Amino acid sequence: MDRAAAAPPVSIDTINPKVLKCQYAVRGAIVSHAQRLQQELQTSQGSLPFDEILYCNIGNPQSLGQQPITFFREVLALCDHPALLGKSNIDALFSKDAIGRAQKILDLIPGRATGAYSHSQGIKGLRDAIAAGIAIRDGFPANADDIFLTDGASPGVHMMMQLLIRSENDGILCPIPQYPLYSASIALHGGSLVPYYLDEATGWGLEISDVKKQLEDAQSKGITVRALVVINPGNPTGQVLAEENQKKIVEFCKNEGLVLLADEVYQENVYVDNKKFNSFKKIARSMGYGEEDLYLVSFQSISKGYHGECGKRGGYMEVTGFSAEVREQFYKVASVNLCSNISGQIIASLVMNPPKVGDESYKSFIAEKNGILSSLARRAKALEDAFNSLEGVTCNKAEGAMYLFPRLHLPQKAIDAAKAVIAAPDTLYARRLLDATGIVVVPGSGFGQVPGTWHVRCTILPQEDKIPAIISRLKAFHEAFMDEFRD
Amino acid sequence: MDRAAAAPPVSIDTINPKVLKCQYAVRGAIVSHAQRLQQELQTSQGSLPFDEILYCNIGNPQSLGQQPITFFREVLALCDHPALLGKSNIDALFSKDAIGRAQKILDLIPGRATGAYSHSQGIKGLRDAIAAGIAIRDGFPANADDIFLTDGASPGVHMMMQLLIRSENDGILCPIPQYPLYSASIALHGGSLVPYYLDEATGWGLEISDVKKQLEDAQSKGITVRALVVINPGNPTGQVLAEENQKKIVEFCKNEGLVLLADEVYQENVYVDNKKFNSFKKIARSMGYGEEDLYLVSFQSISKGYHGECGKRGGYMEVTGFSAEVREQFYKVASVNLCSNISGQIIASLVMNPPKVGDESYKSFIAEKNGILSSLARRAKALEDAFNSLEGVTCNKAEGAMYLFPRLHLPQKAIDAAKAVIAAPDTLYARRLLDATGIVVVPGSGFGQVPGTWHVRCTILPQEDKIPAIISRLKAFHEAFMDEFRD
After folding, report:
1. What separation in angstroms does the CA of A309 have from each of A113, A176, B80, B114?
2. Which of A281, A370, A363, A269 shows the shortest CA–CA distance to A319?
3. What is the pLDDT of residues A33-74, one digit of tens each?
4. B89 vs chain A: nearest CA distance in angstroms?
């Protein structure tokens, strides 16, 4: 290459080292390998011991056959092509309430222009609708000015990290195991991840005394801890926090002056009767704490829930407790990217305001919604039982979210074999599982785990008719793996 | 507030100072003031000397009444709600080629799932279509693996800044005046903006000798300059670069080892017969330079052109010349945000592959496209003439893009009046213009300008029937302004 020496060549030694440090296992090496295998399957059928790749690495329901909610897509199609609303035979193609809702949404958009940049926080009328939905959910008021519509939850999380992290001396308390968006975002913004451990023995319980210990430990090392991340329902761990536990977390953040970053994207995904989702805002307000008592950011996404609209990239954050001056800075950062996509904004408003009793679509909407959620609950149970039936595997219940995070008590020989190929033992396991069965899971090391323990994260999302076959492939693989490595 | 002292309160003194430093005038104080005035208009009609706010601050065509391209929206609606494709009377509602295109696009998407996360670079089949469109445009091959689909051009620019900037000792050469996304992104990522000046006297010409001088000046201060930003057609300046000029830029970046960041989002917006858009990739390849000779990133957006689909947030970057190792890092950063929105991806594929001769929609598509582009050319000329007719105002031609950037030769009294209210003189002018006429323009200080010169940026986007009234309001305001301040 005959480039002059004035600028260093762009190489991994000269790019931003924060980028190098960032890791994102959910789309990491195992997934790249799976994509190569998928191409192999397409070009030479029968060359592998399976005939399809099953992506259980990522919460991406529609990629595995889940159908979108009809009402949402009807409204979206009408908003994308409003000329349809003027056609004569439109009633035969769309439900009456979808037509009404699309008209109402278009009326909320200045100039009915779904192709225009909106206000940088999102279209005001849609934020009003979302605030109304939050108020109904929580029983406490919500304010459209506190809503920032985002392209999924991830950009919102990045924005908060960007605002809070000044240097590596600023720390963010994160659960371990955690969803690696958090570790990746903290690394990209140059901060320090301060871990607190969820207790696997008590169903991934969150002990506030442990959080406090970790906080003090970080402070003693000169770290200014600025925020606490809580993922509820848990990812990858699937637990749903009890109200008492949430109260302690609120109290703790209030007393320590920490921003509570509440990842509540799985709020619709609760599968057990004895647990219920409560937003942290509801908990804080029910304790009598208002705006001035707690910095609180709640993240919501259209990618999860029963609708799983991942590809549409929509979501919001509800931001409360900050001064007007700081909020102006939030707005400024949002404005540099102009606005989130309008289709995602529209679906976010539908998620928070679905059809109601009496609407033409209500019955079919509820049937679709309940069908998906009850099927997810059955799939979670079936896969949980399957993992628990495997030699040396223990698996907590998925009370909520979309994942199981079984622990692999691996034989020493397997650990040694991993060491020999310079891989973590759970990475070896995940790689072997993929090569033998086409099932893609993410090694626990991508999420963090108590040192010396090994896990994988597996989504509960394959369609129900495929679950029995998946379970038998899994069992056969595991037996063979254990036969090979049993001490 | 009774928060404990452990963490500092979240205030503008304790948030990331890079955020504070970042400025984005396109949605800055003037625009916030305009939004307040708009609310005032809604609540008390007749309270202001105008009855609507005209947002000429931002290239947002559909917010000012431009209609979306019918074919694009037909395809989008069908992809949003594929169930429509199975209905019997669908031919009456959609053009035949829109139906065919939607079916083709759905076939390209694994599982036809427009609600699934895609590959982090975007759906492979859509990238193939975009690469084919680039190859037709340039006459040189393009590769789907080089395409990263993005939510508009802005996230792509941020990603490149994030990758290249390690500290304030890394510099990015930017034109002055520039689109403030660049200064904002460099500030957010903690780098140094190294300015080079466009020459207003020669129609905003780019002199490579000046760029070289600025580069050497920065190097002498210890700055490692890593990239050169070129915006062609220019924003806010509207010039279209000549081929000879582009060749010099390519040669310069090659010799200096700089990444050429080519903002080519206005590639469809050229309004003069004697100029033509050439992509920098075409220029480089026509000079015989291949992958190994030049780091080149081309940004494209669905928000501009004749379609102006700002709210859909789509675009791509074509990334060439980097090593496989570095490209893996690009992919990793893209994967942390999972993928760009699928609706935006679909429209990006349509923009790069519009209807062709013989397609049912071709004639109406071309009529819509040419109607918009020829109207934009007329509007540019009318507003340019209007600015040039004002006392003490000179305005270069908008050869391309969507803006005029007239220079205001302000009387000393006006400059003093601005100083008295601690504002830049062009900010005073823009504020007075807004208060008197409802026309929103952005002060030149938001883009950078030669010290001691003053400008405003005004889009050419108001609908044609409104232009005469805008011009008379502008003239009346300017006369009164000059009468008040004339020396």
Report:
1. 22, 27, 11, 8
2. A281
3. 998 999 899 888 888 999 899 999 989 999 999 999 999 999
4. 8
Mutate to test the interface with A, among B20, B24, B99 (most CBs of A within 10 A): B24
ipTM over 0.90: yes
Of A300, A460, A464, A486, the closest CA to residue A390 belongs to A486
d(CA B63, CA B24): 20
Which tens digit of pLDDT belongs to each residue from A272-314?
999 999 999 999 999 999 999 999 999 999 999 999 999 999 9
| Cα separations in angstroms, A280 against A208, A231, A283, B365, B487 | 15, 11, 5, 50, 62
Closest-CA residue in chain A for B226? A7
Provide the chain B residues 99-128 that lie in CB contact (below 8 A) with chain A. 110-111, 113-120
pLDDT(B2) > 50: no
Cβ-defined contacts of B133-137 (< 8 Å, 24+): B133/B349, B133/B351, B133/B352, B133/B353, B134/B279, B134/B281, B134/B318, B134/B352, B137/B279, B137/B282, B137/B352
Considering only CB atoms, which chain A residues are within 8 Å of B33? Answer: none
Which residues, 6 or more positions from B363, have their beta carbon under 8 angstroms from its beta carbon? none
Integer Cα distance of B215 and B172 in angstroms: 9
Of the candidates B258, B117, B256, the residue with the CA atom closest to the CA atom of residue B174: B258
Would you tell me how many other CB atoms lie within 10 Å of the CB of residue B141? 10
Taken in order of first residue, the domains within chain B and their CATH numbers are: 17-65+366-485 (3.90.1150.10), 108-351 (3.40.640.10)
Q: Are A147 and A135 in contact (CB under 8 A)?
A: no
